């Protein structure tokens, strides 16, 4: 059964993981968001009661 021979598939797996570990992290870490998050104000917001007309 040739599918049980790990010789060719182990090298393919090893090379593919090396590609993932070498090339992808810099591309992912270089990603920037279009809108940088801004800090929200710490003052409490004014809460208005919701008036609902019950019948």
Automatic annotation (TrEMBL):
Membrane topology type: Single-pass membrane protein
Subcellular location: Mitochondrion membrane
Polar residues bias spans: 35-44
Transmembrane segments: 6-24
Superkingdom of source: Eukaryota
Any one annotated GO CC term: proton-transporting ATP synthase complex
Location of the region described as Disordered in the Swiss-Prot/TrEMBL record: 34-55
GO biological process: one example: proton motive force-driven ATP synthesis
Entry-linked InterPro entries: ATP8_metazoa, ATPase_protein_8
Alphabetical keyword list: ATP synthesis, CF(0), Hydrogen ion transport, Ion transport, Membrane, Mitochondrion, Transmembrane, Transmembrane helix, Transport
Primary localization class, coarse: mitochondrion
GO terms, molecular function: proton transmembrane transporter activity
Subunit organization: Component of the ATP synthase complex composed at least of ATP5F1A/subunit alpha, ATP5F1B/subunit beta, ATP5MC1/subunit c (homooctomer), MT-ATP6/subunit a, MT-ATP8/subunit 8, ATP5ME/subunit e, ATP5MF/subunit f, ATP5MG/subunit g, ATP5MK/subunit k, ATP5MJ/subunit j, ATP5F1C/subunit gamma, ATP5F1D/subunit delta, ATP5F1E/subunit epsilon, ATP5PF/subunit F6, ATP5PB/subunit b, ATP5PD/subunit d, ATP5PO/subunit OSCP.
Recorded family membership: Belongs to the ATPase protein 8 family.
Functional summary from the UniProt entry: Subunit 8, of the mitochondrial membrane ATP synthase complex (F(1)F(0) ATP synthase or Complex V) that produces ATP from ADP in the presence of a proton gradient across the membrane which is generated by electron transport complexes of the respiratory chain. ATP synthase complex consist of a soluble F(1) head domain - the catalytic core - and a membrane F(1) domain - the membrane proton channel. These two domains are linked by a central stalk rotating inside the F(1) region and a stationary peripheral stalk.
Protein name: ATP synthase complex subunit 8
Name of the coding gene: ATPase 8
């Amino acid at each position: 059964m040739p599918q049980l021979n790990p010789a060719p598939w182990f090298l393919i797996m090893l090379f593919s993981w090396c590609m993932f570990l070498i090339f992808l992290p810099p591309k992912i870490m270089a990603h920037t968001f279009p809108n940088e998050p801004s800090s929200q104000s710490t003052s409490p917001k004014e809460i208005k009661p919701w008036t609902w007309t019950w019948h």
